[in-house]
Design goal:
6-stranded antiparallel barrel; elongated; 14% helix; Thrombin, subunit H; mainly beta; 237 residues; 6-stranded antiparallel β-barrel
Length: 237
């Protein structure tokens, strides 16, 4: 019976979703978009699965509170308009075409263009080795300072997630070293350089950023960019 409610699709190579997160998100095989009341309460928010919405507005990380074959309810790091077209990325669900159908402060409802196969999410558990799936990343381009050992480097951050970031740096000897990254409007973040290739390095944070912390930082960046754009427009008219 349930098979008639969800669309079949291949799931080979799908990214696993943290099993503890699956236990704290409301799942439904209904083809309807979850309603605001379907979302779980505020307990165990750190266990909710993270995803990403990509659209004309660029992209934003979301914290999923309810998921059905027809859509989802999530908190978004930046506000979106009703009717906005998005592509949903959530674990095994990749680039699912959808649109925003309702908003309520930072929470929004998203309807998939076609019913999604939730088995692709539910069937994927964290491997027994304990390896955790990589959090969704926001592609950005902003300056930062990184301290590696005794040396400071001016760098450009290429993407950031709750658990780490990628930045442009030429020194390959930084791999394995402890580092402190400082970005405008965000507290210094301690971590370890895990890899370096083709002029870029990956930093894993010692302590993951909170969803609210990264959302606030993203909001400040959007506000600053808007102000700069307005100032530039005023000078050219």
């Amino acid at each position: 019976m349930f098979g008639t409610l969800i669309r079949r699709k291949k799931t080979e190579g799908a990214m696993p979703v943290d099993e503890s997160a699956l236990n704290t998100t409301m799942f439904s095989l209904s083809t309807e978009v979850p309603r605001p009341g379907d979302a779980i309460d505020g307990r165990s928010l750190d266990l909710l699965p993270m995803g990403k919405l990509v659209g004309d507005f660029a992209q934003t990380i979301i914290r999923v509170r309810a998921l059905s074959a027809g859509g989802l309810v999530a908190e978004a790091m930046q506000p979106l308009d009703v009717g906005a077209r998005v592509a949903v990325e959530l674990g095994a669900l990749r680039a699912i075409p959808a649109r925003v159908v309702w908003t309520r402060e930072a929470t929004l409802g998203v309807k998939f263009d076609q019913d999604a196969d939730l088995r692709a999410v539910l069937a994927n558990r964290a491997p027994r080795s304990g390896h955790q799936p990589r959090p969704p990343r926001l592609d950005i381009d902003c300056p930062a300072t990184i301290k590696v050992g005794r040396y400071y480097h001016k760098v450009q951050v290429r993407d950031i997630s709750l658990g780490g970031l990628k930045l442009a740096i030429k020194d390959p000897s930084c791999v394995g070293q402890e580092a402190v990254v400082t970005l405008d409007s965000l507290r210094p973040i301690r971590g370890t350089v895990r890899w370096h290739r083709e002029g870029h390095a990956g930093i894993v944070f010692d302590r993951a950023l909170a969803f609210e912390e990264l959302a606030e930082w993203l909001g400040k960046r959007i506000e600053i960019a808007t102000m700069r754009s307005g100032a530039w427009s005023a000078r050219t008219h």
